[in-house]
Write a structure and sequence with these properties.
Radius of gyration: 25 Å
Helix content: 40-55%
Number of helices: 3
Largest sheet: 2 strands, antiparallel
Number of strands: 4
Number of domains: 1
Strand content: 15-25%
Distance between the termini: 11 Å
Order of helices and strands: EHHEEHE
Structural class: alpha+beta
Shape: rod-shaped
Length: 126
């Protein structure tokens, strides 16, 4: 028998909030690392973002863009009209928390299972 406990709700909320905070901090750190990564083409950046988004548990990607960054062979400011030697791509975006996930986890943590070996329903009043 699965029983929902109202007095257990505040403790379940604290537990879930602590777990989600830990997971979201890890995911944000990994997303910042992904945004610092330089890609050779735009398709590689999009593929890396899609792979990263599939592994998210506590957050999701709200917005993302791929920026082209020109690179020059020599150090210093390039002269006017100097074409770049090559172009690299980097991701930019934002993550957000999943509110529906939080509520479902709180509901799950505020329940408990009541088990017995007694099979006769007349001996076990509600």
């Amino acid at each position: 028998m699965l029983i929902h406990s109202e007095p257990r709700q505040p403790q379940a909320q604290r537990t879930v909030d602590k777990q989600l905070l830990k997971h979201s901090e890890e995911e944000i750190k990994a997303f910042k690392q992904l945004c610092r990564t330089v890609f050779a083409c735009e398709a590689d950046a999009q593929q890396a973002l899609a792979t990263f988004a599939q592994g998210l548990r506590a957050t999701f990607v709200v917005q993302s863009t791929v920026h082209a960054i020109p690179r020059y062979a020599q150090r210093g400011r390039p002269g006017p009209g100097t074409p770049p030697d090559h172009v690299v791509y980097q991701l930019e975006g934002a993550l957000a928390m999943q509110r529906a996930l939080r509520q479902s986890l709180v509901d799950q943590h505020s329940c408990f299972i009541l088990a017995t070996n007694e099979l006769d329903d007349t001996l076990l009043p509600p």
